[in-house]
Amino acid sequence: MATTVTDFLTKLGIRLKKTISATSDPTSNQVYHVINEISDWLSVICMENKSELGRKTGTITLADGTASYDDFVDDIIAPDTKGWLLKTYSRDEIVLTTEEDTLNYSPYASNETQPEKFYVDMNGNVIFLQTPETEYTAYIPYWYHQTRISAASYTITGASKASPCVLTFSGGHGFKTGDRIYVADVAGMTELNSKYYTVTYVTSTTLSLDGVASTAYTTYTSAGTASVMIPFNGIFDNLYLEAASIRFQSIEEYQQEVEQSWLAFLMTEAKKVIEVRKSMIRKVQR
């Protein structure tokens, strides 16, 4: 399975029987564009089929008297139909509603209570009804935009001896919290090499490696790369390869039949993967 864009290009080159590099057809930027396009469609397909793939749960700390929050405004495609408020010994369900429910809503202090509904407005803000009377912790499951791929890898210039370990990058990185990376070629702190990590965004030039305590590792000296993994953590890698292969057949010239075929293929095959994932109990036949 493809795990990095470099590997992705190599596999596509084999399938298309031609060499693909930054200077050939298609270019690296065209490859990244197609990967991102496929990611967008897969996220929508997962949402339409109520799949856990491409979905995560966002946490919002509600404040007394404040109903509108933009905690995942740049991340959300669509919310699931239910969320919950975390209580000391229980959790209370809150349900997705529409903006129409606000027509008879009076946002005054006398009407503040425990929220029972939420909706997401056209700008991606999460709105709670009624306005909270106190501080609550709300959890909203939602389908999200996958990380936009714009490079095959990023150059590491530092690695801290800490818990968790923090990587520093030259010129920044394109990762966000929850992404997976593959680290290689680090000098000094070689314990990091040849491994996959889930990361947490810290700043535009730093990120931390979840669950990695590097306090006892060898001191970092130089070099290292963090390679980008294709979205969905390998689950749809074969679909990326097949769909991109079809897509590249008309990369220079629009062909309606090719455009239709690659999208139909993607939707059909993605649904098969989704259904298999939903069926966790499988019968073994001899």
What does this structure look like?
- Strand 4 (82-86) and strand 5 form a beta hairpin.
- The protein has helices spanning 5-16, 28-48, 237-248, 256-278, and strands at residues 55-62, 68-69, 76-79, 82-86, 91-96, 117-120, 126-129, 136-144, 153-159, 166-169, 180-184, 195-203, 206-209, 225-228.
- It is of the alpha+beta class.
- The longest helix has 23 residues, at 256-278.
- Among the domains are: 1-54 and 236-276; 55-144, no CATH class.
Feature tags:
about 290 residues; alpha+beta; eight-stranded mixed β-sheet; six-stranded antiparallel β-barrel; about 25% helix
What topology does this entry show?
Blueprint: H1 5-16, H2 28-48, E1 55-62, E2 68-69, E3 76-79, E4 82-86, E5 91-96, E6 117-120, E7 126-129, E8 136-144, E9 153-159, E10 166-169, E11 180-184, E12 195-203, E13 206-209, E14 225-228, H3 237-248, H4 256-278
Parallel strand pairs: 5-6
Antiparallel strand pairs: 1-8, 2-7, 3-8, 4-5, 4-8, 6-7, 9-10, 9-14, 10-13, 11-12, 11-14, 12-13
Helix pairs in contact: 2-3, 2-4, 3-4
The biggest sheet amounts to:
8 strands, mixed
Enumerate the spans where pLDDT stays under 50 for 5 or more consecutive residues: none
DSSP helix fraction: 10-25%
Which structural class do you get from the secondary structure elements? alpha+beta
